[in-house]
Design brief:
Helices cover 76% and strands 0% of the residues. It contains 21 helices and no strands.
């Protein structure tokens, strides 16, 4: 644990996380401000384009860059790919916070003689600080747990070293040591974010705006700002689209048969469906308890689910490999162990959906049903769940599509001989068969675009954009 190699891996992992998080903070906050508060040309289109990189899995983007640009690899290549793919994690919450913030505070600052820049840094940024911090935390945890992109771009971090130790070196002890270090780093980041949030709670309240904020004229900077956002969209979306189209049409390596692609799609759908079903089954009691009977037990269960979500998929997968070999061998190499891995990774998404949906069910409806002599279980089955079904269904769809994109846990836990779109893509790119990987990458992007569009349209982010 205290060897020089481990120290190097920790330093490189933290450095990559810091660089990507800082880049996403700057790019995401600047984009959100431009599309919500200025007279940027085509700001509605840029608002949509800024959310779409979430539809491109990072390992698909890395595959696209590697197959397009010669010798594209290393630390800074990985940082570029992760920044342009991950900045929506900051952009979406900050844009939503800006759209809902009360502009009165900024107007008061301007009336007291503060210029646009001082108002932005002294007032606006403080208003959106909690949203930006939440996005930064999500980005940092995502980079620490990232495996596919950094493996394709050949950057030695903790996650890549763990996978190499298990799959190539058969060194389970070394993998366990590195996983422990990675878990410790994750816990430190979560603890630091919690302490920072408590210290900055006085800035966390954002008043509900009764009117939209006045657009700030950019003057001569309108078109340079639009050009800058166009470059970001080209890097995040244009390169993958061009690479996939080229490889599909003119590539020299082809997938073995159409049956392989069909089999990968079927496996992806089956694994994801099973994982989503198990996740929602586990989330229902936690979400209902959190919304209906808040207390220490509900809080403890909720925090435990989020703690597991903060762990990388590689660590969850490796832990379940040990669990299957040592304690539950009958589950080892079965789809049920993979479904359990998905549930551990994505349980908070399901819990939040269930709790939010149940919270919108009026308690008086349940009280009336119980006053008529119905038992609690009957009321839950016939009243609460039917009314909460739309929100629960949206959560299930989100978990299902997130399972489709999961790579490291699927690589470790899938049954032998069964491949998904993600694992087929990784297998072909690892031996530079880029045209063979293109169909799997294209299908993943198309499927992932569905929850991304849903996220962008259901948040109400674009309702106040107007024309232009």
């Amino acid at each position: 644990m205290f060897s020089r190699r481990t120290g190097t891996l920790v330093a490189r992992s933290l450095a990559l996380a810091c660089v990507v998080t800082a880049g996403c903070l700057v790019l995401g906050t600047a984009t959100a401000f431009l599309v919500t508060r200025t007279d940027l040309p085509g700001r509605r289109a840029f608002g949509v384009l800024a959310a779409l990189p979430l539809a491109v899995p990072t390992y698909v983007a890395a595959f696209a860059w590697v197959s397009t640009v010669d010798s594209f690899a290393g630390f800074w290549a990985a940082a570029l790919v992760l920044i342009v793919c991950s900045y929506p994690y900051v952009y979406l919450p900050v844009a939503a916070a800006l759209a809902g913030a009360d502009p009165a505070q900024e107007e008061v600052a301007r009336s007291l003689g503060r210029g646009p820049w001082r108002t932005f840094t002294g007032v606006t940024l403080r208003q959106v600080r909690p949203a930006a911090a939440a996005g930064a935390l999500l980005t940092a945890l995502y980079v620490l747990s990232e495996f596919g992109a950094i493996s394709i771009l050949r950057v030695d971090t903790l996650t890549r070293a763990i996978f190499t130790a298990v799959n190539l070196g058969f060194d389970r002890t070394g993998a366990l040591v590195l996983s422990t270090v990675l878990v410790a780093l994750t816990l430190v980041i979560l603890l630091g974010e919690g302490l920072s949030r408590r210290r900055g709670v006085r800035y966390a309240r954002i008043g509900g705006a009764g009117r939209p904020a006045r657009r700030i004229p950019l003057g001569p900077w309108r078109w340079p700002a639009a050009a800058g956002l166009s470059v970001v969209a080209a890097l995040a979306l244009g390169v993958p689209a061009q690479s996939l189209a080229y490889r599909l049409l003119t590539g020299v390596s082809r997938p073995g048969t159409l049956g392989e692609v069909t089999s990968a799609v079927a496996s992806s759908l089956w694994f994801s469906l099973l994982g989503a079903a198990l996740t929602m089954l586990l989330a229902l009691p936690i979400g209902l308890l959190s919304s209906r009977v808040p207390g220490p037990l509900a809080i403890a269960l909720d925090r435990l689910s989020y703690l597991a979500h903060g762990l990388p998929g590689l660590v969850i997968g490796l832990s379940l490999v040990f669990f299957g070999i040592q304690l539950a061998y009958s589950l080892y190499q079965t789809v049920w162990l993979l479904a359990l891995g998905y549930a551990a990774l994505f349980l908070p998404l399901a819990v939040a959906a269930v709790a939010g949906a149940a919270g919108h069910v009026p308690p008086i409806v349940e009280d009336v049903a119980r006053s008529l002599g119905r038992r609690p279980a009957y009321v839950l089955r016939t009243v609460t769940l039917p009314l909460a079904l739309p929100g629960v269904g949206a959560g299930a769809a989100l978990v299902f599509l997130t399972c489709m994109k999961e790579l490291p846990a699927t690589l470790l836990l899938r049954p032998t001989g069964m491949d998904t779109l993600a694992t087929r893509l990784w297998t072909h790119t690892s031996v530079a068969e880029y045209a063979a990987a293109a169909p799997y990458a294209a299908l993943l992007v198309v499927i992932a675009a569905v929850p991304t569009w849903w996220l962008a349209t259901r948040t109400g982010l674009f309702t106040g954009f107007g024309d232009g």
